[in-house]
TrEMBL record:
It comes from Ostreococcus tauri. GO terms for cellular component: cytoplasm; SCF ubiquitin ligase complex. One of its GO terms (biological process) is SCF-dependent proteasomal ubiquitin-dependent protein catabolic process. Residues 102-328 form the F-box protein Hrt3/FBXO9 C-terminal domain. This is F-box domain. Pfam families: FBO_C.
Amino acid sequence: MASDVRLRPRQPTASAQMFTRPWLALFDRRKPARELEIPEILAVLDDNTVAEIASRLGPRWFARLAVTCVSFRDFVRSREDVWRGFCVEAFAHRESAKDTHEICRKAYRGCWRTMFWDRLRVRTDGVYVSRNTYIKPGVKCDLTMRNAVASCHLVVWYRFFRFLGNGEFVCKTSPKKLSVEAKLLRDQGALARSNDVFHGGYTIDGDDRVHCEVLRYGANGSLSATHFWTRLRGNKPGASNRMDMVKIAMVDEDAKVPVPDEDEWLAMDDEEHIYRRNLGFTSHKFDGTAPARVTNRGMGTLVFVPWDEVGTHEINKGVEEMDFYCTG
């Protein structure tokens, strides 16, 4: 027989009231997605027009569009045709366009953006700079004198490398900082007229080994060449903003070029060796008779600085603010 007694709802205990879970009330409650605000330039112009404009800005500024808003982020990621143009242009001196397409298809599954992000490249949208210092002895004198001279001076000088897409490069050594020399290095016409700049060519062996050669003509008509071997790397993915100086050799005409061996390339991974070499502890003296002279002076790592940062980069600081520059 059915009972007429109704079951009363169970009253929550004191402990249950104390340990309530208010977040349970949020279950099955979904906030409607807000419609994305499309930038006016994307709303007015079609994607192909925007891609054509962005491709002329260069890869650096095209990648910066991705951090402005969600719409531009998706736009930058989806335009594989723009990244293909950047890759073909960046690796044109190293390989043909057909080989670049083949590498992208086999190694990166046809993703040009990943290929540009992963492979090392010699950058042409700025200048590579190394900051070198040495101690110069001064004159000892009484400190009570009005024109007292310090017993030693910390001298700083710079080495500039600018690479061009056609396989040429220019180099200059100067005590002036980057913000002063940038105007000359950026103007190709001024570079051609200047007598303080040396012109040469560069080749790439593999992915990260760069060989630069500069020809020098002496006053007596003799010909000599200066060879720079550098290792290209980046301190962040896709940057390619560091060049470690492996070896510098000055070779007379018809002399054998002292190409660095495999041990010298592997020694670039030894941080202690690099530190001691930059301080000059492993330098060799030259007696004036050898046809090839290998120097260990000015072996600081080259740092890439884009054109829009040449006036504000930290490498412009003098010895009063920064005595030693750690490139990273």
